[in-house]
Specification:
Keywords: Signal. Helices cover 18% and strands 41% of the residues. By secondary structure, the protein is α+β, with helices and mostly antiparallel strands. A hairpin with a 7-residue loop joins strand 4 and strand 5.
């Protein structure tokens, strides 16, 4: 089902309210996809091409998650004229406050590789909204990869979890030549905070997402 403009707000709020009434006991965050028309109606700008957007309702309120990708020319002096050598990735959460949507947080990264091949992509299928610590506040996990150089190198891989001001990350590289004896890449490192006992569920989730996306070939 697709929604357009202001009608989208009423329709989606009604659907979320019904879901909240049915599931009030578990207090789990509720999510539903939204489109560019709804973001425009709420005056939320999208940087580059929209990858995905979701409305999230949790104990902290109502939110819009907006994920986008902007590709263009490098601003470096040695940039190749007419070539796409810089790619910016954005994942931002906006939280409703009265009739406005101030930005609560943003994950922002980029590659800028003048004279080289540039690549940066979200693994949009594995962008997740969870409540691993059962506190009723949504965690958003965003995995993506970036590259700067040749096509056979292992790419930089990041899996980032946000819950309000908290930011936790697993960083490493993708795995190449996985079906051959001469494979390379595939390393990973957790933020120190993920080694704490209270963050064990977050660590396991980041590892789970990483394992879904890190093998390239």
């Amino acid at each position: 089902m697709k929604f357009k403009g202001r009608a989208a707000n009423a329709a989606m709020c009604a659907m979320l309210a019904l879901g909240g009434a049915a599931d009030a006991a578990d207090d789990m965050p509720k999510t539903i996809p939204v489109d560019a028309a709804l973001l425009a109606s709420e005056q939320i700008g999208v940087k580059g091409a929209l990858v995905m957007a979701r409305r999230i309702v949790d104990r902290a309120g109502e939110h819009l998650l907006v994920v986008s990708r902007l590709a263009g020319a490098s601003s470096a002096p040695r940039a190749t004229p007419g070539a796409t050598e810089r790619i910016d990735l954005f994942a931002a959460l906006y939280t409703r406050k009265d009739n406005a949507w101030p930005q609560a947080w943003i994950i922002q990264d980029k590659v800028d590789c003048p004279g080289l091949d540039s690549g940066a992509e979200f693994f949009s299928r594995y962008i997740t909204v969870t409540d691993l610590d059962k506190n009723g506040i949504a965690e958003v996990t965003v995995p993506y990869k970036m590259s700067c150089g040749g096509g056979i190198d292992a790419n930089t891989l990041k899996v980032i979890l946000r819950q309000g001001a908290q930011k936790l990350a697993l960083r490493g590289t993708t795995l190449r030549n996985s079906r051959m004896g001469a494979h390379y890449g595939g390393d990973m490192a957790f933020d120190p905070a993920l080694l704490l006992k209270e963050n064990a569920a977050f660590k396991a989730h980041l590892k789970f997402i990483r394992d879904k996306v890190y093998v390239e070939d």
